[in-house]
Amino acid sequence: MSNDFTRRELLKSSGLIVGAGVVAPQLVFAEVSKPTPSARTEPLIRLSLNENPYGPSPNVAHALQLEFGRLSRYADVRLAGQLAEQIAEYEHIPVEQVVLGEILDLLGLFLGSAGGPGGEFLYSTPGYLALIDAAARVGGVGVPVPLNAQYQNDLVALKSKVNAKTRAIYLVNPHNPTGTINDDEAFKSFLRETSKSAVVVVDEAYLEYTSDFDNRSAASLVREGANVVVFRTFDKIHGLAGMPIGYVLAPRSLADALRKQGAGGAEGLGRLNLVAASAALADPSQVVSTREAVAKERSLWLSVLRELNLPNTDSQANFVFFDAGRPQPTVAAAMREQGVDIGRAHPPYTNWARITIGLPSENLRAQNALRASFK
After folding, report:
1. Residue 115: helix, strand or coil by DSSP?
2. Is residue 360 reached through a cis peptide bond, with omega within 30 degrees of 0 on the bond before it?
3. Which residue ranges make up each domain of the chain?
4. Distances (CA, A) of 148 to 155, 178, 186
5. What span, in angstroms and rounded, lies between the C-alpha atoms of 330 and 269?
6. Does the domain made of 63-281 have the CATH classification 3.40.50.720?
7. Helix extents (H) in the chain
8. What confidence tens digit (pLDDT) does each residue in 175-214 have?
9. Nearest to 280 by CA among 60, 25, 53
10. Under CATH, which architecture does the 31-57+284-373 domain have?
């Protein structure tokens, strides 16, 4: 089973930490690390985890300030219920089909255990594997399917792998690390057909970065009653990576089963996380402004990649993915010497690099660092 890095596992340990910057009127966070020898006067820029540097809605800071007087109290069922109702209204789906939490791990454990070991889990590779790795811990068998020529989920190849052993299909759309998005009609047709054989889990962590998010979302199939689960997170475009929380939209029977396993419990979610998510969801203008800012910066990034003649994917997310023509660790090391961290490689695309879109000033530094690494 792959040892691919999982963003949510990394962030769990910091779920209830609120730094001084959280209560500031403008929520923009900078990564401060020991400077590299060639960048001693400037902090290391982290463009490796697909975080949203523009931060959450200012409403989040206000909501957290009001809640600080209740830090001695556990989150209660009422608080969690209010957020679930808010999400249900936002998604136009019965609240009974909403399960709160960053629960891809739990979902993988549950699906991997259901029916005993040996169930197959189809997924695109390279990719984000929290659910797949969790299923493997209880006997699930991961079945990696390479991306197609456009670096998208290969729907034809995935469909050909479905058999009697298939327990679930896990897809990220837009995909991570390529940022590509499948044709909407073809994608939903695939979901309708394959979900008759096995549950299909669609991770939409980055979908809100697309301009037609509402139409593209697989939530419409959950409303139709298909055997489809949609996962969303507040960690990305809502800017709450430091207070991680998400939710799934699922068929009623699966949602009930997950709750019986402890998913969505208020205490486990945390009072501040619930309050922050509610305030973020109530401010759609923040999503729009962040989407527009990222799209503008993404366009500038793509122009730099063209300038350097570096092939790249058609990313619709908050990162770019390109063929550096040399091992990714070599490029990453050169950029880190210039004060920019772009993280790890994504085998089997060993010559490809993924760079998170940061603030304009960060992007400019990173672009200059990339240029310098090719001199």
Report:
1. coil
2. no
3. 31-57+284-373, 63-281
4. 8, 11, 14
5. 40
6. no
7. 7-12, 58-67, 77-91, 104-113, 130-136, 155-161, 184-194, 213-216, 219-224, 252-260, 266-269, 271-281, 284-307, 328-337, 360-373
8. 999 999 999 999 999 999 999 999 999 999 999 999 899 9
9. 60
10. Alpha-Beta Complex (3.90)
